[in-house]
Amino acid sequence: MAETISPTAPTAALPMAEPESAECCVPPAGRPSLGAEAAVALAARFKALADPNRLRLLSMVAAGEDAEACVCDLTEPLGLGQPTVSHHLKILVDAGFLTREKRGVWAYYSVVPEALGDLATTLTGQLGSAR
Amino acid sequence: MAETISPTAPTAALPMAEPESAECCVPPAGRPSLGAEAAVALAARFKALADPNRLRLLSMVAAGEDAEACVCDLTEPLGLGQPTVSHHLKILVDAGFLTREKRGVWAYYSVVPEALGDLATTLTGQLGSAR
DNA sequence: TAGCTGCATCGATAGTTGTCAATATCCCGA
DNA sequence: TCGGGATATTGACAACTATCGATGCAGCTA
């Protein structure tokens, strides 16, 4: 899929070749930019958002009365079973995007706005060509 | 993946079940917050970022000379095989985070800053209880 | 107290993903 | 034209994930 890179056109426009640095694999001049552990931690947060149903859950909670909602409100619109919704909510809580508060029999979930803002900052800051 | 995005078609036209317990389960006003297809599209972008090695690739490309790098530069620091790196890069290109330019034998990848900025905006705007 | 209700946890299973080895393809230099 | 190197593609396999049904637990209510 999408593998057509037009193998003929671009190469013909190439001049003579670079003067000296004809070698491609120059040593990584700067620094590894993003460490392995930091990448794992960041990927874990993205992984929590990498599911359509979890995104909808997050959105529905944010759209609630006081930016909170209980499980029974969320189960039906998604068309998922209650255990599945509970599972997704747990993942979002573990990732720091939601908080859980049990009031009586019901469990109310609310968003953590700083978490999303922090992630957005990391997106544009660390990865957006600004090291 | 095994995600069923709720077979109910238009994502919001739920028949509004009769509220038996007036305490908790009140259907959220009627605004669907995030549609099913929008959630799928957004999740696809997050999924591309939900891997540590892909995040490091993105970061390394962004930290390159002109915010670009070729495959051979990226293979070694990651400790992955060349096909694997190529696979990850393809995923990032398909998600719109990178662009590929073939110069001679080498393939240079560069970041698409608007993609990250756009995603960051969506994060704080659509999900961050701002509506 | 007993029963009921909302939610979490526990296996089990189908589908997806990350990785590698092998191979194909493309391009440059001799 | 041929050989070599850089990259992409294919096939296979292990690991992970999303989902469900069954079950357990806690708190309200009669």
TrEMBL record, chains A, B:
Gene3D superfamilies: Winged helix-like DNA-binding domain superfamily/Winged helix DNA-binding domain. Pfam families: HTH_5. Keywords: DNA-binding, Transcription, Transcription regulation. Residues 34-131 form the HTH arsR-type domain. It comes from the Bacteria. This is Metalloregulator ArsR/SmtB family transcription factor.
